[in-house]
Amino acid sequence: MDANEREQYEAAIHGDREAFEMIIRTHSRTLFAIAYGILQSREEAEDVVQDSLVKAWKTRWRVRDPEKFPAWLTTIARHKAHDIFRKRRTVPLSKEGIEPTEIQFPDTTAIDQQLHSALAALPELHRTALTLRYFEEMDYRTIENTLGLTNGALRGILGRALASMRKQLRPALASMH
Amino acid sequence: MATIHDELDSWLTADLHGELSDSERSALHAHLVECAVCRRTHQETKTMNKILEETLADEKADPAFEERMLAGFRNRIPQTTGVVKLFANLIRLRAAQIAAVAAVLLGLVQIGRMITGESATPLRNRKNYASEDFVARPGQAGASRADQSTSLAKSDELARGRSQDSTLNEPPPPTVPASRSELDKEAAARPMGLAAAKAVAATPENLARAEQAESKPGETPAPVSANRKLIRNATVELEIARFDDAVQKITAFANEERGYVATTNSEKQANGKLRGQVVVKLVPENLDRFLQKVRGLGELKNQTLGTEDVTKAYLDTDARLKNAHVMEQRLIDMLNTKTGKVSDLLQVEKELGRVREEIEKMQGELKYWDSQVQFATVTISLAEKDMEEPAAFLLKERAQLALYAPDVEKIYNDIKSLASPKVQITNAQLNRDYSGRVSARMSMLIAPEESEGVIGRVKGFGRAENFQTQTERIAQGGSGMSENARTKRDKVELNITISRDEQEQAFQQTSLRIRTASVDEKAKELGVLAGKQGGRVRSSTFNRDPDGREVADVSLRVPMKNYPALMQSLNSLGKVENVSVQRQDRTGTQIDEANAPVDISIQVYSQGNIVSHESGLLATLRRTVAQSAGAIMWSLRMIGVAVAFLAPWVIAIVGVIWITRRVVRAKR
């Protein structure tokens, strides 16, 4: 983290609104990707990002070390997303939360539907890694930092994620060739 | 290349994502050329990647996403205003937090000081400097004033002027510098003046003065109370040794502190102690010092110190007064110029009268406030020590006396004849019951100086018995003890009961038995013996039972002094047995022991001719057997008790042992 960023986080912690808005500009997409990775719904993910930002501003004084500000932001977003995910799962008891996406994308093509159900079947971490990579084209180092992974772990995760999706979508893929 | 083959998925993914180093990539491609399975997987993964890229690109946040987030954020967290924001930011700063805590602590300390009465020492010192300078200045040696006096004096006056200005609100004295520039000049001149003072005269006095002056530049007059109208009041309650001394000292203190004693009142209690109140007026800045001094006079019981701020009321009244003046002027003008109807003029005149009355009232009010503000009022309540000490004691004596005499009526009349102005008979009663027994009851009040003589004479009338005196000391005009209070004897109250001497209870009772052959004869002889010793027979009975036993009971009464002689003479009658003596010592009463009556009951009896059933052989045997059977029964009962006592313990101990053994066995 360079000195500039650090300064920005520190100013935001001390209530500098402009600094905080700058952080919103730079970080909200990451937060969105994480929230989407958990919820797989754009609307809900957007709400999560919004709520997380408000909460972050209100409780910013809790952060003692400015270095940890981005990690703290993502933690808030993850918790919020999990909250919503849990609520969603508890409401329709009959339907297992594995495939909630089918309802939400009624007009997409067959391959899309299959892709989404394959995504939904992935572990959450894998899905989040995928969204970060494909939404924001982040390099592996940044994703690892954001998700708190050790150096080099992401390669295996993404490899396994792609492989499992590939296997699920194999018939569809074959038809595309 | 087994690793690549095994972990192909991650290699392929990393390759597609451009995360492989050059060497890794060439290694991967080399393997792909060799391995057909991996080539197919490569193909599939590429397609997968492409689908993901295409599909997820639709899902990702749109370009306006950040702006939406920002707008939402601004919407939900509105911009705070400048001051609030500044404050909010400030309280988050560590330094500000520490400062706030420190301020709160300081505040608490100050409050604590105020409560404990150590209040505001620095402030008072500052004022004291000013007033001390003012008082001490005339005594200053002329020589030392040569050079420095101008600056010192001026600074003194400055301080005095300010302090007066701030507290009394008087018009500033002419010596007070009018403008800021003059003040500055003062400041510039002071150090030089000081140096000169030290050089010219280094006498201790001057040094002290110079030091005082030196400490002055750091001082700033308290601006808070400037132009404020404060009325200071204090009340002190003291317990002092002597009232007059205390008043004298208070007067002296008041003079020292530029004040005066306004009123004094005192009240003398019945026990000679004084209680009173002194009201002192003095300039407010000396109030604290004065109170300090007054407190040293005696034991402080209570103290209150109050300040009333009448600034607002004062200014209001002042403004109203000005308005009233204007009004008055206008009415006067009206009277002067207007030549209207008489009734109008009268109206104006009336109004003018009202306004003037109001003006006077307000002026009076202002004057009153001024006087109140100018001088603080100290009300000192003084009470001498031991206020509750009684003024005098009254000794109340009450005596009780029982008289026994053969002729009750005679004594009754004798006592009645004692009556005189100093001996008053309050109650006299003579009772005669159906059996002709006479008793009397009398009460009299005797003057203290006569009491002993009269009581002595009364005692002489008969056998005095049961004489009791009771003295009560009653405190008057207070309670507790006193060293100085006088003790006065009150009239002595004497209650007398007179009864015939038979009714008197015997001082000693003796009972004995005499065994003799001729009971009847000896019983008669007893009466003779008693008569010889000044006694008499009170009762006698004679009895003969079928066994031929004769028993005579004789009761005698003799005076105590003749008792031993009588007892001696009884031995001549026969064998004296079973003597028991019972003596009633009456504590607290004075008894004429020599004349006190002694009752002796004597049983004279003879042995019967026939042996009774009770002493026969059979009877003895029967008694012995019955007694031994009783003893055995008793011991059996005792054993039962012991068993009943021990049995529960034995059962409990055995039970415990049994359970323990069972447990031990079960473990094995």
Report on the architecture of this protein.
The complex is a heterodimer of chains A (177) and B (668). Chain A is mainly α and 177 residues long. Chain A has two domains: 1-93, Rna Polymerase Sigma Factor, Chain: A (Orthogonal Bundle), CATH 1.10.1740; 108-177, Winged helix-like DNA-binding domain superfamily/Winged helix DNA-binding domain (Arc Repressor Mutant, subunit A, Orthogonal Bundle). Helices cover 75% and strands 0% of the residues of chain A. Chain A has helices spanning 3-13, 17-39, 42-58, 69-90, 101-104, 110-121, 124-136, 140-147, 153-168, 170-176. The N and C termini of chain A lie far apart (45 Å). Chain B is of the alpha+beta class. Among the domains of chain B are: 2-57; 120-215, no CATH class; 392-502; 506-610, Alpha-Beta Plaits (2-Layer Sandwich). Chain B is built from 20 helices and 15 strands. Chain B has helices spanning 2-6, 8-16, 22-34, 36-59, 65-76, 82-92, 94-116, 121-136, 149-167, 180-200, 204-215, 243-256, 287-295, 311-337, 342-374, 408-416, 448-460, 519-532, 563-570, 617-667, and strands at 230-240, 259-268, 274-282, 299-309, 376-384, 392-405, 423-432, 438-446, 463-476, 486-500, 508-515, 536-544, 550-559, 575-583, 597-605. Chain B has a five-stranded mixed sheet. In chain B, strands 7-8-10-6-9 form a five-stranded mixed sheet, covered by helices on one side. In chain B, a hairpin with a 5-residue loop joins strand 12 (536-544) and strand 13 (550-559). The longest helix of chain B has 51 residues, at 617-667. The interface between A and B is large, with 45 and 41 residues.
